[in-house]
Design goal:
alpha+beta; Ribonuclease iii, N-terminal Endonuclease Domain, Chain A; Double Stranded RNA Binding Domain; 2 domains; 3-stranded antiparallel beta sheet
Length: 250
Protein backbone atom coordinates (compact mmCIF):
# COMPACT_ATOMS: atom_id res chain seq x y z
CA UNK A 1 0.00 0.00 0.00
CA UNK A 2 2.82 2.41 0.92
CA UNK A 3 4.66 1.63 -2.32
CA UNK A 4 1.49 2.32 -4.31
CA UNK A 5 1.05 5.64 -2.50
CA UNK A 6 4.57 6.80 -3.32
CA UNK A 7 4.10 5.70 -6.93
CA UNK A 8 1.00 7.88 -7.18
CA UNK A 9 2.94 10.81 -5.74
CA UNK A 10 5.75 10.25 -8.25
CA UNK A 11 3.31 10.15 -11.16
CA UNK A 12 1.31 13.15 -9.95
CA UNK A 13 4.33 15.45 -9.85
CA UNK A 14 6.11 14.01 -12.90
CA UNK A 15 6.43 15.99 -16.12
CA UNK A 16 5.70 12.64 -17.83
CA UNK A 17 2.32 12.21 -16.12
CA UNK A 18 0.42 11.94 -19.42
CA UNK A 19 2.78 9.22 -20.66
CA UNK A 20 2.43 7.29 -17.40
CA UNK A 21 -1.35 7.38 -17.71
CA UNK A 22 -1.37 6.35 -21.36
CA UNK A 23 0.95 3.43 -20.73
CA UNK A 24 -1.37 2.37 -17.90
CA UNK A 25 -4.28 2.55 -20.37
CA UNK A 26 -2.41 0.48 -22.95
CA UNK A 27 -0.79 -2.16 -20.77
CA UNK A 28 -3.09 -2.20 -17.76
CA UNK A 29 -0.38 -1.20 -15.28
CA UNK A 30 2.04 1.62 -14.69
CA UNK A 31 5.60 1.50 -16.04
CA UNK A 32 8.47 1.14 -13.62
CA UNK A 33 11.29 2.70 -15.64
CA UNK A 34 9.77 5.37 -17.86
CA UNK A 35 13.06 6.05 -19.71
CA UNK A 36 12.78 2.80 -21.69
CA UNK A 37 9.40 3.86 -23.05
CA UNK A 38 10.58 7.36 -23.92
CA UNK A 39 13.41 5.86 -25.97
CA UNK A 40 10.89 3.59 -27.72
CA UNK A 41 9.33 6.68 -29.29
CA UNK A 42 12.56 8.07 -30.79
CA UNK A 43 12.63 7.22 -34.50
CA UNK A 44 16.01 6.83 -36.18
CA UNK A 45 15.38 10.02 -38.17
CA UNK A 46 15.61 11.92 -34.86
CA UNK A 47 18.63 10.02 -33.53
CA UNK A 48 20.40 11.73 -30.66
CA UNK A 49 24.19 11.65 -30.34
CA UNK A 50 25.47 10.78 -26.88
CA UNK A 51 28.94 10.85 -25.41
CA UNK A 52 31.65 8.49 -26.70
CA UNK A 53 29.89 8.19 -30.06
CA UNK A 54 26.83 6.37 -28.75
CA UNK A 55 23.53 7.03 -30.44
CA UNK A 56 20.03 7.05 -28.99
CA UNK A 57 16.99 5.87 -30.94
CA UNK A 58 14.48 3.03 -30.81
CA UNK A 59 16.10 0.62 -33.30
CA UNK A 60 17.59 -1.67 -30.65
CA UNK A 61 14.29 -1.75 -28.75
CA UNK A 62 12.48 -2.49 -32.01
CA UNK A 63 14.80 -5.46 -32.62
CA UNK A 64 14.23 -6.73 -29.09
CA UNK A 65 10.47 -6.21 -29.21
CA UNK A 66 10.18 -8.08 -32.50
CA UNK A 67 11.86 -11.14 -30.99
CA UNK A 68 9.82 -10.99 -27.78
CA UNK A 69 6.53 -10.53 -29.64
CA UNK A 70 7.24 -13.47 -31.94
CA UNK A 71 7.94 -15.70 -28.93
CA UNK A 72 4.76 -14.58 -27.14
CA UNK A 73 2.52 -15.07 -30.17
CA UNK A 74 4.14 -18.45 -30.92
CA UNK A 75 3.38 -19.58 -27.37
CA UNK A 76 -0.19 -18.28 -27.63
CA UNK A 77 -0.86 -20.12 -30.88
CA UNK A 78 0.80 -23.31 -29.65
CA UNK A 79 -1.47 -23.33 -26.60
CA UNK A 80 -4.73 -22.32 -28.31
CA UNK A 81 -4.45 -24.48 -31.45
CA UNK A 82 -3.15 -27.88 -30.25
CA UNK A 83 -4.22 -29.69 -33.43
CA UNK A 84 -2.37 -27.44 -35.88
CA UNK A 85 0.91 -28.53 -37.41
CA UNK A 86 4.11 -26.48 -37.55
CA UNK A 87 3.48 -25.05 -41.03
CA UNK A 88 0.00 -23.81 -40.15
CA UNK A 89 1.18 -22.30 -36.87
CA UNK A 90 4.01 -20.48 -38.66
CA UNK A 91 1.58 -19.09 -41.23
CA UNK A 92 -0.79 -17.92 -38.51
CA UNK A 93 2.00 -16.23 -36.59
CA UNK A 94 3.23 -14.38 -39.69
CA UNK A 95 -0.26 -13.01 -40.26
CA UNK A 96 -0.48 -11.73 -36.70
CA UNK A 97 3.08 -10.48 -36.24
CA UNK A 98 3.50 -8.31 -39.32
CA UNK A 99 3.86 -4.57 -39.74
CA UNK A 100 0.45 -4.10 -41.34
CA UNK A 101 -1.27 -5.53 -38.27
CA UNK A 102 1.06 -3.75 -35.85
CA UNK A 103 0.48 -0.42 -37.60
CA UNK A 104 -3.25 -0.90 -37.18
CA UNK A 105 -2.73 -1.58 -33.48
CA UNK A 106 -0.57 1.53 -33.14
CA UNK A 107 -3.33 3.73 -34.49
CA UNK A 108 -5.82 2.18 -32.08
CA UNK A 109 -3.43 2.86 -29.21
CA UNK A 110 -3.37 6.58 -30.12
CA UNK A 111 0.31 7.14 -29.36
CA UNK A 112 1.14 9.62 -32.14
CA UNK A 113 1.81 12.59 -29.87
CA UNK A 114 4.73 10.88 -28.15
CA UNK A 115 6.64 9.97 -31.31
CA UNK A 116 9.82 11.92 -31.97
CA UNK A 117 10.83 12.02 -35.64
CA UNK A 118 11.72 14.34 -38.47
CA UNK A 119 8.73 15.94 -40.24
CA UNK A 120 7.00 13.80 -42.89
CA UNK A 121 9.16 10.76 -42.16
CA UNK A 122 5.97 8.66 -41.97
CA UNK A 123 5.54 9.10 -45.70
CA UNK A 124 8.68 7.09 -46.34
CA UNK A 125 7.84 4.26 -43.97
CA UNK A 126 4.49 2.57 -44.26
CA UNK A 127 5.33 0.53 -41.17
CA UNK A 128 6.48 3.54 -39.15
CA UNK A 129 3.86 2.98 -36.45
CA UNK A 130 4.28 -0.78 -36.37
CA UNK A 131 7.95 -0.28 -35.56
CA UNK A 132 6.92 1.85 -32.60
CA UNK A 133 4.73 -0.97 -31.24
CA UNK A 134 7.68 -3.38 -31.43
CA UNK A 135 9.90 -0.86 -29.66
CA UNK A 136 7.29 -0.40 -26.93
CA UNK A 137 7.16 -4.16 -26.39
CA UNK A 138 10.96 -4.15 -26.17
CA UNK A 139 10.73 -1.42 -23.51
CA UNK A 140 8.05 -3.40 -21.66
CA UNK A 141 10.30 -6.46 -21.66
CA UNK A 142 13.25 -4.54 -20.19
CA UNK A 143 10.97 -2.98 -17.59
CA UNK A 144 8.85 -5.98 -16.56
CA UNK A 145 10.70 -9.11 -17.71
CA UNK A 146 9.45 -11.80 -20.07
CA UNK A 147 6.85 -13.45 -17.84
CA UNK A 148 5.04 -10.20 -17.07
CA UNK A 149 5.37 -8.94 -20.64
CA UNK A 150 3.87 -12.17 -21.95
CA UNK A 151 0.87 -11.83 -19.64
CA UNK A 152 0.33 -8.18 -20.58
CA UNK A 153 0.65 -8.71 -24.34
CA UNK A 154 -1.64 -11.73 -24.37
CA UNK A 155 -4.19 -10.13 -22.06
CA UNK A 156 -4.18 -6.61 -23.51
CA UNK A 157 -2.91 -6.55 -27.11
CA UNK A 158 -4.11 -9.95 -28.29
CA UNK A 159 -7.42 -9.75 -26.46
CA UNK A 160 -8.30 -6.05 -26.64
CA UNK A 161 -6.78 -5.02 -29.96
CA UNK A 162 -6.61 -8.23 -31.99
CA UNK A 163 -8.83 -11.13 -32.89
CA UNK A 164 -6.26 -13.83 -33.74
CA UNK A 165 -8.81 -16.26 -35.13
CA UNK A 166 -10.10 -13.65 -37.57
CA UNK A 167 -6.64 -12.34 -38.43
CA UNK A 168 -5.35 -15.71 -39.55
CA UNK A 169 -8.05 -15.73 -42.19
CA UNK A 170 -6.89 -12.39 -43.57
CA UNK A 171 -4.36 -12.67 -46.36
CA UNK A 172 -2.04 -9.66 -46.39
CA UNK A 173 0.65 -11.02 -48.73
CA UNK A 174 -0.56 -9.28 -51.88
CA UNK A 175 2.52 -10.25 -53.88
CA UNK A 176 1.76 -13.95 -53.39
CA UNK A 177 -1.89 -13.40 -54.25
CA UNK A 178 -1.07 -11.63 -57.52
CA UNK A 179 1.53 -14.24 -58.47
CA UNK A 180 -0.88 -17.09 -57.74
CA UNK A 181 -3.60 -15.36 -59.77
CA UNK A 182 -1.25 -14.96 -62.75
CA UNK A 183 -0.10 -18.56 -62.50
CA UNK A 184 -3.68 -19.76 -62.40
CA UNK A 185 -4.51 -17.96 -65.66
CA UNK A 186 -1.06 -18.57 -67.20
CA UNK A 187 0.01 -14.92 -67.39
CA UNK A 188 3.59 -13.71 -67.24
CA UNK A 189 4.38 -11.51 -64.22
CA UNK A 190 7.59 -9.64 -63.41
CA UNK A 191 8.50 -7.36 -60.50
CA UNK A 192 11.00 -4.62 -61.40
CA UNK A 193 12.51 -2.87 -58.38
CA UNK A 194 14.91 0.09 -58.27
CA UNK A 195 16.25 2.55 -55.70
CA UNK A 196 15.01 6.10 -55.45
CA UNK A 197 17.02 8.54 -53.37
CA UNK A 198 15.23 10.41 -50.59
CA UNK A 199 16.00 13.24 -48.24
CA UNK A 200 15.49 11.08 -45.21
CA UNK A 201 18.84 10.51 -43.53
CA UNK A 202 20.28 6.99 -43.81
CA UNK A 203 17.29 5.75 -45.77
CA UNK A 204 16.63 4.78 -49.38
CA UNK A 205 13.26 4.77 -51.05
CA UNK A 206 12.60 1.83 -53.35
CA UNK A 207 10.18 1.82 -56.26
CA UNK A 208 8.69 -1.34 -57.76
CA UNK A 209 6.62 -2.00 -60.89
CA UNK A 210 4.36 -4.99 -61.41
CA UNK A 211 4.38 -6.03 -65.07
CA UNK A 212 1.76 -8.47 -66.36
CA UNK A 213 2.38 -9.72 -69.87
CA UNK A 214 4.79 -6.85 -70.49
CA UNK A 215 2.51 -4.05 -69.27
CA UNK A 216 3.01 -2.08 -66.04
CA UNK A 217 -0.12 -2.63 -63.95
CA UNK A 218 0.94 -1.11 -60.65
CA UNK A 219 3.71 0.83 -58.94
CA UNK A 220 4.59 0.98 -55.27
CA UNK A 221 7.25 2.53 -53.05
CA UNK A 222 8.78 1.58 -49.72
CA UNK A 223 11.87 1.73 -47.57
CA UNK A 224 12.83 -1.81 -48.64
CA UNK A 225 12.53 -3.85 -51.82
CA UNK A 226 10.05 -6.18 -50.14
CA UNK A 227 7.83 -3.32 -48.98
CA UNK A 228 7.86 -1.64 -52.41
CA UNK A 229 6.88 -4.89 -54.16
CA UNK A 230 4.10 -5.55 -51.64
CA UNK A 231 2.72 -2.05 -52.11
CA UNK A 232 2.81 -2.39 -55.89
CA UNK A 233 1.10 -5.79 -55.71
CA UNK A 234 -1.55 -4.38 -53.37
CA UNK A 235 -2.40 -1.68 -55.91
CA UNK A 236 -2.71 -4.30 -58.65
CA UNK A 237 -4.86 -6.55 -56.50
CA UNK A 238 -7.16 -3.89 -55.08
CA UNK A 239 -7.56 -1.63 -58.10
CA UNK A 240 -6.55 -3.40 -61.29
CA UNK A 241 -6.75 -7.15 -61.06
CA UNK A 242 -10.39 -7.33 -62.13
CA UNK A 243 -10.53 -4.13 -64.14
CA UNK A 244 -10.92 -3.83 -67.91
CA UNK A 245 -7.37 -2.41 -68.22
CA UNK A 246 -5.92 -5.71 -67.00
CA UNK A 247 -8.38 -7.87 -68.89
CA UNK A 248 -7.49 -6.09 -72.13
CA UNK A 249 -3.80 -6.89 -71.63
CA UNK A 250 -4.30 -10.51 -70.66
Amino acid sequence: MLRRFFRWITIAVSSEKALYLDLKRIFGEYPGRILFYKIAFIHRSATKQLSKGRILNNERLEYLGDAVLNAIVADYLYSHFPDYKEGRLTQMRSKIVNHVTLSQIARKLDIDRYIISQPNVQYFGKYFYGDMVEALIGALFLDKGFKRTKAIVQRRLLKDYLDPESLIKLEVDFKSRVIEWCQKYKHNIIFNCRIKHTRVKSSNLFSADVMINGEVMGNGTGTSKKEAEQNAARIVWEKNILSESVQNVI
